[in-house]
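Continuing the batch. This is chain 6 of the set; chains 1 through 5 are on the previous pages. Same settings as before, nothing changed between runs. Recording input and output for traceability.
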Amino acid sequence: MLSISNLNISFSDESGNNKPIIDGISFDIKSNQIFSLIGESGSGKSVTALSICKLLAKNAHIDGSIKFEDKELTSLTDKQLQTIRGNQISYIFQDPLTNLNPLHKIGKQIEECLTIHGHSNTKQRVLELLDMVELPEFKNRLNAYPHELSGGQRQRVMIAMALACEPKLLIADEPTTALDVITAQSILKLLKKIQAKTKMAVLLITHDLNVVKQIADKVAVMKDGKILEQGTVNTVFKKPKHEYTKKLLNSYPKGNAIKVANNIIPSLVLKDLSVNYNKRTGIFGRLKLAKQAVKNVNLILPKGQALGVMGQSGSGKTSLAMAVLRLIKSQGNIGFNGIRLDKLKGKSLRNIRRDIQVVFQDPFASLNPSMNVQQIITEGLQTHLIQGDTEQLAIQALQDVGLDKSDLNKYPHEFSGGQRQRINIARAIIMRPKLLILDEPTSALDLTLQAQVIELLKTLQKKYNMSYLIISHDLRVIKAISHHIAVMKDGEIVEFNDTTKIFKKPRHQYTKALIKAAS
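Output for chain 6:
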């Protein structure tokens, strides 16, 4: 179905110099086969996938052969490729919210693929596709916008769009990265089911090795633009030949939370905390309860310890964190080091923010692209009028997170995903906070970087005696860093216990389902 031979890709800069990215890779994908590319961020996986239909930037230079059903794609014009893109070769991109048009309704977006390629009876085909991706209830919600859907529903809409014209080759780039374990499981089962039914070939790009083990037939391991090893999944996973493959297979976040003294002094106390989302209805715009995201939550986080909050997308984890930060309205008590945060306003609230910092999920979106690293890291110091040599403090913060002082004058786009997340962490710890809230701090990172970031966070926690509130759907991350775990479902805490007890003897059926889906 697809044959890539001796593919080389480079990008030219403004001076006309070429920077090689892909170095002589070759692989074949047969029909009715799932072929997976794995490797670290920056290894060239996505560049390889985008080169197949010439979706790279204009400064890209492609050399080598890309044959689709014996047709050489590299020699085709853009007009000729338009008959193939989305029709015979289709893509599922990584972030469904970013890649769906926020201004268009989902029914129109699915139908657009069919219209472009001249299909008739598009309305009926849209309904068939919704059935195929197991969203039959959306037959009456075709007027919904992407932001009104959950992460799993948006990913299913992306799959429906990709399958609209019955492609022979489907390229799926990190289709489950931003999804919780249960939703990811359902998406994987759906992809496997559709692939088996349609006999299409699939090129799967992922850094999640569990995904590869579950659905792929063959796998190729990439590093620095080269394929180091390829073969069947069983062969590569059970008997890896290359040292890098062995390292990759052994790079899951491991270990346990740092050892702490038996400390009963609370850092954070939540009592009957609730978060309600309202919407205006009727001609008079009366407020009506749309969703209760957090329902009467009670939690205690001791000083110097880490509390992990896990659950599916939409369970209320991030709403809980944003309420603690006082970034959204809430009801109930929020106690921090003996101070009622929910009672603070104005200057009093701003003053205490220096003691509570946050690391957001997306390491690129949460950094200002027009500011250099020194400006980003020291912005909080200037906001809170903290005295001292700001440059020296910034250098110390960079060194704490494993970066160099030579990075001070660089901008976010000059760093990898893992390095950008380290900059986010440096920005938070330079304030020497007493509480650090981490919202999915590793979801956008590959396994080797996940392990590095978790070890870094544990080292910093021990060094500065910080308390952590960690929001994550990745159970390996939660297990490696948390002293206690709270399991959330539909806005409620359904189980709370020591990390060891949660994983060895879960009591609630929902907790058992989460652990089973992650194993």
